[in-house]
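Thought: the user wants the 3D structure for the chain below. I'll pass the sequence to the structure tool as-is, report back what it returns, then summarize two notable features.
Action: structure_tool
Action Input:
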Amino acid sequence: MERRKFLSMTLGALALAVVPASVRAEDFRKAKPAVWTAHTVDDAIKAMYGSTALTMEGVQLTAPDVASNGGAIPVNFSTDKDVKSIAVFQDANPEAAVMVVSTTKYSVNKYAIKIKMAKSGTITIVAQGNDGKLYAAKKTLDVALGGCEG
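Observation:
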């Protein structure tokens, strides 16, 4: 009897390992191509969310005041709000959108990324709340000479 129990548990564990969990991912590059070709932050936000009415609360953003290397600027951001997605925009490069992440109620919305900026500018984080609001934070920083070249 022990052998059967062991085999059933082993086969059950293997079945869970082989069958992937349901993953919900949206390809925003295909679904919203205008976001990725927008040259201004407002145009990119409008293309992504249909509005530029930002509520400047609910999102925490940290980045350096002066980046010595424009090719790898550390950006940390988070939110405790119940959100559908979080997006990163900047106004120093020709295209404003950096990334968009879909979230679920189980997501831990704390991110640490590095972005490229060709010159000094502003980073904008926008989180689309399940309540329909666009929560945001902005940070202006200087990029030392050399921009993305470092």
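Final Answer: Structure generated. The chain has one domain: 24-149. The first strand starts at residue 54 and ends at 55.
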